[in-house]
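Sample A.
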Amino acid sequence: MNGQLEQVYEEYNRYIYHLCLKLTRNQTEAEDLMQEVWVKVVRYESYVKDVDHIKAWLTTICMNTFRDRYRKNVRRSKHVMNQPDQLEVPVLDLVPCDTMTAEDLLEKHDLSQMVQQKIGELDNIYKTTVLYFYVYQYSLVEIADLMKVSIGTVKSRLFRAKQRLKEMMIADTTAIEYLPA
């Protein structure tokens, strides 16, 4: 390794290890992942001098390596019939799916219809706040100006609307099958 790469390793070694540990939630897996990350860094050491933000570059390499490992495990587990159990749902959100099956599309459409129906059933003040924020994508400041209330009130209304939507979805026997366990 050249001097610059050694310096990068010394500076970011602990950070990468903790990121790997956070992703895998398993010390052995984290060490394996970290080793793969540093192998890739050494492989692409010619790029190090051109990178402006080393930490961001290393984080990207780490995340991509983790995603690749996860996809490989999932492909393998389809045949073995066991999914990796060390992963949690928020981590799975990091793994994008390129294509949706017809079943996924139908489920997404059904769920969208149900949520739209439930939003329509909300009290007008909550419905308006939700539509401004999620559909029209206004900022909290813009919503506060439009509704002539404080930002705190907008946040409270969004929170209460989401809580009410959740309660309504749980109470609906047809919607309960679409909710995560």
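Sample B, a different protein:
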Amino acid sequence: MKKIVFPGIALISVCYAFGRFSYGLFMPEISESLQLDDTQSGAINSATYIAYCLSLLAAPLFINRIGHYHVIHMAGISAILGLLGIALSPNALVLTIAIFLAGLSTGLASPALGNTVHAELPPEQQARGNSWINTGTSFGIIVSGPIYLLFSEYWRWSYIFFAVLGVLVLFWNRRVLSTRKTEPCTKSLWACMKPTRPGMALLMASLLTGFSSAIYWTFARSFLTDEKGASDMEAVVFWIVMGIMGILGGCAGRIIERIRIGRSYHVGILLLAISLGVIILPSMTASLSSAVMFGSTYIFLTSVFIVWATRLFRPNTSIGISLAFLALGAGQFFGSSIAGYTIDLFSNTTAFLAFAVLGLFGLLIRVKVAD
């Protein structure tokens, strides 16, 4: 299993943590260097969501026609080009194109790696394999946090370093993965992608989780520094703690095996909502406690969605993962916009509480899948 899981973790780190989420970490320095205002910076960041959703729609088609092995290569190349483009960006237009390229890699990587697990690992190891690969985001966050602290003023060199890591990870995956293809969709692709009623429950759960978690990914750091008075060092420590605790999401496979998918999902939703409420408490200890809960629970829930999707959409696992993550991304896209509007209209405290309560509605979703 390690032969598949370790390079998969590394690829997710490059695509998600470096290619997608690191822009939010380095955004103040990038904006100052390229003379971008807040509106431009936010609009550029939305390119990652658009690219993510488009590549998730395209991934099943590519995997069905050319196999997951080649789609993993596409994801790696897209991430590397995007990271290099960010490093060399002379203006907002080039930066937007680079952010878009980097965002494409995320929507290609997750379905392709899910298909790899389905093709390469025996059924009893697939839940654990998918869960550990999904922790790659956390490992990447752990790496990007210290890089930011050391080289925040030299953000271009940081992105060149990320791109070099991407090249090494791409060759690692190329070396260890086989070209074996899973069974293609025998009907039209759109017929295979049409979700059943249990599939609709998965999409609703993913959409709601993406929506409620968006406020945390987008505004948690600024909430700490602007309203709670945290220093930049404390904010980055908060970011790193969130990444470290996300590694616990790798235990999702074993937890699912013990308490089943339905209970795993409901426990995760409850803890995610609690983390949104705890961050509004005044102390830094409360903020770090929130980071612990959110980091571990978010990765845990996305792992649950991957396992849930692979069991509903066999043998076309990439289709299920693509649809689940598409719903998650759509929820984050709309949730981020509405969160900003809510904060402007009311306050950070009101917005975080409102999104926590909204997230609890996920407890009403019934999970029906063969465990």
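Observation for Sample B: The mean pLDDT is 86.
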